[in-house]
Amino acid sequence: MYVAEAKKDPAQPSDRTPYEIGAVYRAHAQTVARWAYRLGGPAIDIEDVVQEVFLTAHRLLPEFRGEAKITTWLFRITQNQVRHQRRKLRFRQFLSGTATDVIGQTASTKPTPIEVLEQRQANATIYRVLDGMSDKYRTAFILFEIEQVSGEEIATLMGQKVSTIWVWLHRARAHFAAGLEKLERAEASRAESPSTAPTPKKPNDPTPSASS
Amino acid sequence: MNPRTHTSLPSSRSADAAEPLVPLRDLVREGRIDPTSVEARAAALIQRIPKPPPLASSAYLRIEDEILQRTTPQVPRMLWLRRLGWGAAALSTVTASFLLGLSMRPARIETRDTAPLAASRSLELHEVRLPRDSQARLSVGTGDQLTVEGPGTLSLQGMQVTFRQGRLRVDSGNQPLLITIGSRRVTVGARSSASLSAHVGELVLVAAYVGSVTIGEPATDGSLQTFTVPAGSSWTAAPVADPRSAAVGTPAHESPQMAPQRAAVRAQRGNATVPNKTSVHAAVSGALTAPQPTLTTAPSRLLAESQLLGRALQRLHRERDARGALSVLDEYATQYADGTLRAEASAARVDALLQLDRRSEALQILDGASFSNLARGGELRLLRGELRAHAGRCREAVADFDAALRGDARSDGPLTERALYGVATCRLQLGERGMARDALRKYLSLYPTGRFADAAREALGQL
Known about the structure:
The complex is a heterodimer of chains A (212) and B (463).
Chain A: H1 21-40, H2 46-60, H3 70-96, H4 117-130, H5 135-146, H6 151-158, H7 162-192
Helix pairs in contact in A: 1-2, 1-3, 2-3, 4-7, 5-7, 6-7
Chain B: H1 24-29, H2 38-48, H3 57-71, H4 79-103, E1 108-111, E2 127-130, E3 135-140, E4 144-157, E5 160-171, E6 177-181, E7 184-188, E8 193-199, E9 202-210, E10 212-218, E11 224-230, E12 233-236, H5 243-246, H6 258-269, H7 279-287, H8 301-318, H9 322-335, H10 342-355, H11 359-368, H12 377-390, H13 394-406, H14 414-429, H15 433-446, H16 453-462
Parallel strand pairs in B: 5-6
Antiparallel strand pairs in B: 1-3, 2-4, 3-4, 4-5, 5-8, 6-7, 7-10, 8-9, 9-12, 10-11
């Protein structure tokens, strides 16, 4: 059994030693990956986001004065990177003319065991609805309802007052409910009158006609 | 779990309310909302979504490489600057070794397990032994980080680090770090990163990522010969055919014609005073006065193979160019159809195909290959099980998962987690409910907050 020595901030060895990007990475990489996954959804390249977050953090590290916790600072960078990636994804979809097709949470280098079908569908549905929301409501909703972060912590992470966060969460919940109802109605009407148009092929489909 | 702010108010559609909310899951659990409402349906969806997977070890290390590579100043290639650096290092080594001895702290270990840790304290280690599919990270001395992947054995005696088996990733601090592996002594330079592989007590592979790595090995005359593996290149031990040739491992990056020149350079430097602590450099001072015959012969076939494979791995892991890696691997397959490293090349091809999400092709390779002689053979077998399960070949997949579990009976690492869950889902697919139930229960007993815990509980509830 191996145990670790607990530290308040493992990335900073002492008060006098400045942060070093390698130590920051080792201490917070998994947390950033988790945020990227949650904020970005299944279509995001998590590894890409994590790498960009820490490269950006390295560039901005000299300006980090420690007024906020380093996790808060990293969260803001992660948020921006995810926003940037999602924008790129939407632009690519716009150019290619295909609908969003969520292929699941598999990291490209690591296939998972048999995914429970309901998990994939639930994931796809939730993020489809979330994609229709503004960034701030979307982030607040994900952190509160999915990640189970308290309102006060969300306020710290997002740099807002707690009362503002509650207002956002109320609105986010209302928007999510409306979006979910709309999606359910659309799927119900599609089920009643199936379309004759071909369904878009999943990206990275290994079948010969879609080989890369 | 962080403290939550709970109130007795139900969820509200009043969009401007600033009252604290109760999470939807809690409202449903407490029966405080209409189960047919859209909020209840939203809560049901949220409860079903999977937990975020942790970054895979390979991705974690690859990204770390990339970040350190891009953020560490490059070592200048000019020879005169290197000589100046060596001279300064030699003069300061005595002082540095004294200070290093004073500042040596007990090794601290971090575990990679995502489960919460029960306790924390510093340990003074003498030996680390890891089973398969496990990993330990140690902080040794001042700023040195060692990451051991099992099955592996590493021992620490004061300043002496001895590595016997497995894969060792080294990120050195401000001082060079000396590691003994069998008859060879590897010095990882200051602020350098490298990966070392050992098998039955002998060094088999060195990959230098950042900075420099020097390998010293005994020559037939009892002296110590050294050569450097610079960043971005790799070195593989030559097969032991002739005891004399086994004493010399030609650096992967260096052509034989360069060797006499480097030997002459070392002889010149040998006149400088070299303190005893840096024993590798000290041995150089009187040893290499003329090139050894084996250094001037043509590169061995194994060396050429390893150079080509090294290029493919660099494309794959450092440049993230899976297609480029595949074209280099095609070149390898053409030139070395029966090569010594063909198993490693096949494994690299599988990794490249998976990066491109070409799973069926990856499975074709895994179906036809045996990786039992590779350190990551267990992982590849598990991977084959997962791909087979994904392709609907559950009966075959179960055999792979069972083999992975048998080979690692006491481990509770991430590979065992995947294998257990794989068994459970395959048994379900095959209609073997009793065995599926047993597997799910075993999984939940070992990984109550694991990656597949929610899905496992839900599946168990339905059985």
